[in-house]
Amino acid sequence: xxxxxxxxxxxxxxxxxxxxxxxxxxxxxxxxxxxxxxxxxxxxxxxxxxxxxxxxxxxxxxxxxxxxxxxxxxxxxxxxxxxxxxxxxxxxxxxxxxxxxxxxxxxxxxxxxxxxxxxxxxxxxxxxxxxxxxxxxxxxxxxxxxxxxxxxxxxxxxxxxxxxxxxxxxxxxxxxxxxxxxxxxxxxxxxxxxxxxxxxxxxxxxxxxxxxxxxxxxxxxxxxxxxxxxxxxxxxxxxxxxxxxxxxxxxxxxxxxxxxxxxxxxxxxxxxxxxxxxxxxxxxxxxxxxxxxxxxxxxxxxxxxxxxxxxxxxxxxxxxxxxxxxxxxxxxxxxxxx
Length: 338
Hints:
By secondary structure, the chain is mainly alpha-helical. 70% of the residues lie in helices and 0% in strands.
């Protein structure tokens, strides 16, 4: 099957999977709640929120949120509160994306408004501020309806900060640039662990304020999400090789080349870093690329295999294909596979 058709086949198979259909319906209700409350907050401030288009509700735009909802479902959280947590997930997404925008000097919108389109930094600040306010408001609304106990709302708001702050602290450590290329395993254990691993567990902070889940049931779900996050971060590193080198950030592929790579690849890395760092591309280092791609796929297979019920594990290959495509890794992963 040609690669393009095979990718389309995987996406179609994934989109029609019964667990995703059910969770997507719940997610759409949560997203609608998020945008409704955001509009109520922005309107008195004189900012008009543009209604989100159909694409904002598409599964492709919300795949990670669907994985988090899947973990809630597998833990036995009822549908009504999964919808509430879907809205809180969008709040966290607004805050994390807004922070990433500021750190990376880019803009990925979570709220489309009539603010000046070129004012990326201020738009990011508004996205963060509004998402934080929406989070508190929807928790208070849920408490008012008796869905959650009101005396735990402030605990939930505080919990949402805890993991994100641990992850943000790591990001802050790279802001001024690094001077040392750490060993590959050290990168995973001391950098990516905080940057993305525990960040993928952060969506559980608020539910755990209200839900009682046994450790035996919860631990595998958190471990699955952690490994998915780590696999995605390694793929990000392969795509962002030139940017990370230019901004002097930790990068798993650079670490593999520098510490464990073939001598020719290490010489090539040093030469390009001295002359044209912007031209660095993962495909220039096939041996290290193969190692990184193998590690990323293994983490994703382990993570999704732990997260999914046995009857849904046939979704693992199309889910990995989808993530590779979303991160922009499809061509590199095929190249790494030879």
